[in-house]
Amino acid sequence: MLRIYFFISLMCLVRSDTDEACLSFTRLSFHSAVVGTKLDVKLMLFTRRNLTCAQAVNSTALGNLNVTKKTTFIVHGFRPTGSPPVWIGDLVEGLLFVEDMNVVVVDWNRGATTVLYNHASSKTREVAIFLKEFIDQMLAKGASYEDIYMIGVSLGAHISGFVGKMCNGQLGRITGLDPAGPLFNGKPPEDRLHPSDAQFVDVIHSDIDAMGYKEPLGNIDFYPNGGLDQPGCPKTILGGLQYFKCDHQRSMYLYLSSLRENCSITAYPCDSYRDYRNGKCVNCETSQKTSCPLLGYYADYWKDYLTEKDPPMTKAFFDTAEEKPFCIYHYFVDIITWNKNVRRGFITIKLTDKAGNTTESKIDHEPATFQKYHQVSLLARFNQDLDKVAAISLVFSTGSVVGPKYKLRILRMKLRSLAHPERPQLCRYDLVLLENTETVFQPILCPKLHM
């Protein structure tokens, strides 16, 4: 039933400006972007009490905003076409579904709508001042800094940082979703988002080679797929408008996935994406935590541990699938070989369950080195998590299309789940893989080690 109410509220987001019963997000034309727009900020309040439409609030009228509850501000970024962000309705719905709170959509489309990015960027501090005045009124009515959470997208991430600075870093939390890079890269802390802008700052970087900010900006900085090209996004300009915005927007859709119950994206603190891919950073042993940090809404589970570090900053890496909900399931493939000579190459592993469902992982980011009687642990990443694995197939390749076909003689292969370490580990002994030839077998349970 709650989902039905949310659907009604989403319909209200796109009502015309003449509908006085409910406030709608400003919708402008491309013509407005060409001629430019003067800054005008609107605040749209959603709560579980007024799910059916947004209520206008300002520093003199807080409306249904309950100052004793958490208040989450959603701050969008640059709008070169004037249209409302397509993700706003889903984000409002998701936040109110997971927690009873106030959700305030910050509509600064008049100001953000322009074909000239630097014009929109120049408005960010003005938006921050407007929000600071509103927060001051909330505090005067009994709200606390601890309960104020800001989610800023692109330019909105830096706006959130400016608000945080004006509040002396006392805001409860700021989440930056691919903070804007152009005109901000290389700027000093006072001119961009910074870890000290709130009690906890988490950032998702999904387009560091184009529209996003490359360097860390938070207490924890997440880099999906290394922060570069995102799976499922166009790789060439032939992808049209999606080529320019898909990687940048992916940070938002990854955050949205954290609000759904069917996908919790785990990230792995690491010095580099390469180290993560090579399986060097898949354990998160801390004095207070037993699991690795989660991306998105629940990233603050690591708040206490991270803010006690010196400096209080950590980078975390993970990979995603091409489509929603983007989850990847990690396994280790441990291989001991007995070839006389060293073999260098790649492994492709495919899992099949009793129902015939299959999932495949190509471990081909760099060649593995197999030496006699040395265990090589490869990090395999699957789009599906198959509970009961009935069959496994392996393919060994050197990547060469000419020359002799090599064999990889496996003394023992072991498959172990990182997401579910309690599951039985699966083994197979004495295999010979002929290069570029699929070898299918039924695994057996690995013997348990007795201490």
UniProtKB/TrEMBL annotation:
It catalyses: 1-hexadecanoyl-2-(9Z-octadecenoyl)-sn-glycero-3-phosphate + H2O = 2-(9Z-octadecenoyl)-sn-glycero-3-phosphate + hexadecanoate + H(+). Ca(2+) binds at residues 192, 197. The active site is at residues 154, 178, 248. Residues 36-326 form the Lipase domain. InterPro entries: AB_hydrolase_fold, Lipase, Lipase_LIPH, Lipase_N, TAG_lipase. It is found in: Cell membrane; Secreted. Residues 1-16 form the signal peptide. This is Lipase member H isoform X1. It comes from Hipposideros armiger (Great Himalayan leaf-nosed bat). The lineage of its organism: Eukaryota, Metazoa, Chordata, Craniata, Vertebrata. The gene is LIPH.
